[in-house]
Design brief:
CATH architecture of the largest domain: Beta Barrel
Order of helices and strands: HEEEEEEEHHEEEEEHEEEEEEEEEEEH
Strand content: 25-35%
Radius of gyration: 50 Å
Structural class: alpha+beta
């Protein structure tokens, strides 16, 4: 009875456990299939991300559109607006010098004094001669008045009366001449014996020391005492070729910003030790003839010089507007490459492929290079990563100043989502 009872019980347990085993196997198969699909999807995505990461990375940007004016540059020199050689009108010994070499002077400042004593003596002599002439005139007037009454009484002849009239006229002329001589002597003593600066400016060094004889007058052998040059404002003279002259003449009728014959065009200037054109002025003169020997035209600009940095004879470089304003495309200068004599830029098309475009670069404008021809406003120009780009290859292009692309997510993060 014991063995007979255990056999049926074992078969019942086996029958009850069989369905559970088949269910677990089915669930395990389904889970394995799901895990396999997830692994294959992650592998495909990783391959795509890896392929994108293997492409050369470059930065692209569209050209900047801006209204610009072409600028021409010329080298020239500063010249003083006024320059005066100090020379004495009188000959005499130099008595005093009233300035320090190289100092700034104002109009009317006393600079030199010629010994005044000889001119004081001449003035006194002229005044004495004037007094004598006036005495002679008084006598001639009185003599003429007496002659009028004598002529009426027929005491003197008409000829004698005419002679007295002539004497009075001669005496009046002598007084006028002596008055002029006195005035001239006063000028010599009070004006010409003291040399004053005729302009505001800077005086050079003295050419004659005190005690030397100074030769005066209006002839060419007078003694040069010093030179005074104006400082503020100051002029800048330069020359430009005939072709530029014709271009300016044609453009000037259409724009007031181009160098014109009537002047008053704004210009910029820099010195030899400066990098930027930081000084502004205006053209005030263009010569009326072309130099036949050099084929150039002389131009002149005026600049304010309150601190006295600009000095006559100093070199500088001037920038003159050479075209009317126009809308231009500009790119960074680093984006332009060279192929022998030609210039080109690399652009990325819609498919991410690098293309080569030959361009005609112009001037620099606020750090960017003007492109005259060969580029469109919608082109995506490679501005960074040129060493990794070649025409015809695909690149991973990122817009300049665009937000960085998010980093690819790991497999665990992707499965968690």
């Amino acid at each position: 009875m014991k063995f007979g009872n255990s056999a049926p019980k074992t078969r019942v347990n086996a029958l009850m456990s069989a369905p559970k085993t088949r269910v677990d196997a089915l669930m395990a198969a389904r889970l394995a299939a799901a895990l396999l699909a997830t692994a294959l999807a992650g592998c495909g995505q990783g391959q795509q991300q890896g392929a994108a990461q293997n492409l050369p990375a470059v930065t692209v940007a569209k050209p900047v559109q801006r209204t610009v004016v072409d600028q021409d540059e010329y080298v020239g020199r500063f010249v003083a607006v006024s320059s005066v050689d100090m020379r004495s009108r009188l000959s005499g010994y130099l008595a005093a010098i009233h300035f320090t070499d190289g100092q700034m002077v104002k109009k009317g400042d006393l600079l030199f004094t010629v010994d005044r004593r000889p001119f004081q003596i001449v003035l006194e002599q002229m005044r004495a001669n004037l007094a004598q002439s006036r005495a002679n005139l008084a006598f001639a007037k009185a003599d003429l008045e007496r002659g009028q009454s004598l002529l009426q009484n027929k005491t003197i002849t008409e000829q004698t009366y005419d002679q007295r009239t002539q004497a009075k006229t001669v005496a009046e002329a002598a007084v006028a001449a002596q008055e002029a001589m006195v005035h001239s002597a006063e000028l010599d003593l009070n004006e010409y014996s003291e040399l004053r600066s005729p302009i505001d400016g800077r005086i050079g060094d003295r050419r004659v020391s005190v005690g030397n004889l100074v030769t005066g007058g209006t002839s060419g052998n007078t003694t040069l005492l010093a030179t005074v040059v104006s400082v503020d404002p100051i002029r800048f003279e330069f020359t430009f070729d005939e072709q530029s002259y014709l271009r300016y003449a044609r453009f000037a009728s259409a724009s007031k910003e181009v160098a014109a014959l009537n002047g008053n065009v704004p210009v910029a200037l820099k010195l030899i030790d400066e990098k930027d054109f930081g000084h502004t002025g205006n053209i005030d003169f263009v010569d009326n003839a072309i130099n036949q020997s050099s084929g150039t035209v002389r131009g002149r600009a005026v600049f304010q010089n309150p601190d006295g940095v600009f000095t006559p004879g100093m070199f500088g470089r001037i920038r003159v507007p050479g075209s009317p304003p126009y809308l231009a495309l500009l790119v960074p200068d680093e984006a332009i490459a060279s192929e022998q004599a030609r210039k080109y830029v690399l652009v990325v098309d819609d498919g991410g492929v690098v293309r080569q475009k030959y361009v005609s670069p112009g001037q620099l404008d606020d750090g960017l290079r003007v492109i005259r021809d060969g580029l469109a406003a919608g082109d995506r120009v490679i501005v960074n990563g040129l060493m990794h780009a070649r025409p015809g290859i695909k690149v991973n292009a990122r817009e300049l100043n665009a937000p960085a692309s998010p980093a690819p997510k790991s497999g665990d993060e992707a499965r968690a989502q």
